[in-house]
Amino acid sequence: MEGRGGGGTEERRRSSNNDVIRLERESVIPILKPKLVMKLADLIEQNSDRTEFLKLCKRVEYTIRAWYLLQFEDLMQLYSLFDPVHSVKRLEQQNLSPEEIDVLEQNFLTYFFQVMEKSNFKIVTDEEIDVAHHGQYLLNLPIKVDESKLDKRLLSKYFKEHPHDNLPEFSDKYVIFRRGIGIDQTTDYFIMEKLDMIISRLWLWFLKKTRLQMLFSRRQSRKPKSDPKKTDELNPETEEEDLYVERIRIENMELSMRKLFGKIMIQEPTFDRMIVVYRGAGTKNKIDRGIFVKHFKNIPMADMELVLPEKKNPSLTPMDWVKFLVSVIIGLVTLVSSLELPKADIWVVIAILSGVVGYCAKVYFSFQQNMETYRNLITQSMYDKQLDSGRGTLLHLCDDVIQQEVKEVIISYFILMEQGKATIQDLDFRCEELIQEEFGMKCNFEVLDAVQKLERLGIVARDSIGRIYCLPLKRANEIIGPTTEELVVKATQSSA
Description:
The protein is of the alpha+beta class and 496 residues long. Among the domains are: 27-59 and 395-491, no CATH class; 70-211 and 243-312, no CATH class. It has 16 helices and ten strands. A five-stranded antiparallel beta sheet has the order 3-4-6-7-8. It has a three-stranded antiparallel beta sheet with strand order 1-2-5. A two-stranded antiparallel sheet has the order 9-10. 30% of the residues are buried.
């Protein structure tokens, strides 16, 4: 499904039958620019004003694109030195010292993080990962990163010189960015998953009856620093602005014949876009200077491991082996003890054997099924969910920055043109209201950034008490003036 204008995961609210994720609204305007421009133009009554407004939109885009051209050109030139495919040859051609290369690396990262911030991407935090990993979706295997294959120097140096709040514990090796929220739904029979659920519940019942559940209690995962209880203590007005997405998982479903033998639907919130940045560890004799930038789409939160770099091949965890061996030992001891009794109850023996064999079968078949699912998901992430990498990702980001900036300016100017003077707070509210009423979407509008660009363009001013107002359309077009693109088009038409 398409990503929504949502924000990052904050807290989890659970009841007896559901698991709900609270998501904050992001600053992304989730509307295609052509659709936005045409819709706003249709709302203008006068044909002459409509023509001037369309001209203004084009001039705003061309001007903002020119503002960022030099910065983006520097970014692309720097990345050409650290493209993993060609970095070795190009760095050799430049004949740079290691110290000079280090400086260029940090310059590239500085430009890159600025672009990510302008594109409204945020760094995934430990708390968000904990919340995301609370449940399982399609990937049911523990996936870990082979840290020995990752460089720790590049990002450590950057964050030392450019401190960030709430950095994840792995930020010295790789960084994961995310933006936007969507929902992924999968409908299938899930035969093995249902079998696994039934065996798990029978096994838990067996442990409870034999009072052995303490031996098999799972280790508690690290809790998020934010208290999930706070979700229920939020201001009602704040709750209305947030987005709540329910996780629908097999392990939480109530058993019924219809669900057991028919198709069921599971649901998980997704990160609409994810970008991973890292560098390989290299060898003892040669430092790897290549920087990997990989771009993914529609990644389920519970399956975030799909985007991790240098993943280890999954296997049974030590806890699984402990459970497996201890269950066999306990089962055999109990079985022998039962047989030594003067009157051995055959049903007790059968129950014990069934429990032990069932649990062993569960571990084996679950692992085999999860391995097959893992291979399919990895293949899908490579061909379907990976949008681009390297230079292609950077070009996409640069264009994305321009589109967001242009949309902010157009919406702000339109509101001032149609509704008159406004304070910063009023303009912010009116812009968000317009997006919701005309397009049915919500976002956290970046009004300060929009006003700064309007003032830089010179098409708005402030009155004596600080309220913002826009200049008339015709005057605004005269102030911006003909752009290079307009002059080229005019010259082409004249020559034709």
